[in-house]
Write a structure and sequence with these properties.
The protein is an alpha/beta fold and about 375 residues long. It contains ten helices and 17 strands. Helix 4 crosses helix 5. The two termini are about 35 Å apart.
Length: about 375
């Protein structure tokens, strides 16, 4: 199948770039002795999860129970649910997953731990736990210090739970400029203090799980870190480039769109809007844009309706005509993938593979 036969809008993945991204991170993890448990939130694909496992990933990371149910299809030896799971409905489903593979859950409260323990005891399974700590993002995670040590002790006292270690997400490190390096250094110092607290309390920590794509290739510089959970690295996007973690040639995913209107001078309309690209803007943006036009980086993708993408082509490197097809790198590829039913794997101008977005819309 030639790329010209694909109806638009469509999500494309350059297979050469994707494979290079996968191999690069797998090699980095091996070189630095880091356990790799990639987050599947980006690709949401069983076949790509299998590829990550084939390249040496120790397991997979998901955010929701529904994603865990889907990713059982990749046959991982270990599934980390990096999200606190609360409520009997979700816990019953999670225990069914735990009967089929090793499950670990990250949580930041004794309440969530007690609910998880009760469900695991009733199901007759053991579930691993990573106690989650906040090292600067301010989203989830217990406060470092006595409260975090108390959480670990509470987990250790509960039946059918195994405290595997600690976890955190340095999502506030969004770039590798002076501010990003300072935030990374502060997080590293805080982690050192947390681990010292656990040693003083006599609590063993087998896994120290953290990291993110923006700071991915500096993970080995964070003393004490043993596991990384990157997700976006498989495809990359505009925000990843903006963070300094990759170059444009490392962006594997683009949305193929068609120019459907040039009626207004200096403007081109493409057949994809917020239902195609998602409405995520750039991290720390100088201006509101929604993607990068590969064929004309000077064109500004500055506005979207549901089905319309607005390109300001006043400074574009080329002219646009009705029917022209362009590839646009989305700002945030994870949310863009969730909007598409299938992905076209291309090599050059040829479509080699088409795969479904297996975990699309898995919100529970």
């Amino acid at each position: 199948m030639h790329i010209s036969e694909i109806d638009t809008p469509a999500l494309l993945v350059d297979l050469d770039i994707m494979e290079r991204n996968l191999c690069r991170v797998a090699a980095y993890a091996r070189e630095h002795g880091l356990r790799l448990r990639p987050h599947t939130k980006t690709h949401k694909s069983i076949r790509l999860a299998r590829r990550q496992l084939e390249l040496g990933a120790a397991g997979l990371t998901v955010a929701k129970v529904a994603e865990a149910e889907v990713m059982l299809g990749a046959e991982p030896a270990d599934l980390l649910v990096a999200y606190p799971i609360l409520g009997p409905a979700k816990l019953r489903r999670l225990m069914e997953v735990a009967r089929r593979t090793r499950v670990t859950v990250s949580l930041d409260s004794a309440v969530a731990a007690r609910q998880l323990s009760g469900a695991a005891r009733k199901a007759g399974v053991e579930v691993g736990v990573l106690a989650e700590v906040d090292i600067g993002l301010g989203r989830v995670g217990e406060t470092p210090g006595p409260l975090f040590v108390a959480l670990a002790r509470a987990i250790l006292a509960l039946p059918n739970l195994s405290l595997e270690g600690i976890t955190f997400y340095p999502g506030h490190v969004k770039s590798w400029d002076d501010a990003g390096r300072e935030a990374f250094a502060q997080a590293t110092g805080l982690l050192r203090s947390i681990l010292a607290d656990f040693r003083s309390a006599g609590i063993g920590v087998r896994i120290v799980s953290g990291g993110s794509t923006p700071a991915l290739f500096h993970s080995h510089e964070m003393e004490g870190l043993t596991e990384i959970r990157p997700g976006t690295y498989i495809f990359n996007d505009v925000n990843t480039v903006a963070s300094g973690a990759c170059e444009w040639e490392d962006c594997a995913a683009t949305v193929l769109a068609t120019v459907v209107s040039t009626a207004r001078p200096g403007q081109a309309i493409v057949d994809g809007g917020s239902k195609t690209f998602s409405s995520d803007r750039l991290v720390n943006p100088a201006e509101a844009t929604f993607g990068r036009v590969v064929e004309a980086p000077g064109a500004r993708f500055h506005k979207m309706n549901e089905e319309h993408g607005f390109l300001d082509i006043a400074h574009a490197e080329r002219a646009f005509a009705l029917g022209d097809r362009v590839r646009i790198v989305p700002n945030h590829v994870c949310t863009a993938v969730n909007l598409h039913e299938r992905v076209y794997g291309v090599r050059g101008e040829n479509v080699e593979e088409v795969w479904p977005v297996d975990a699309r819309g898995k919100l529970t």
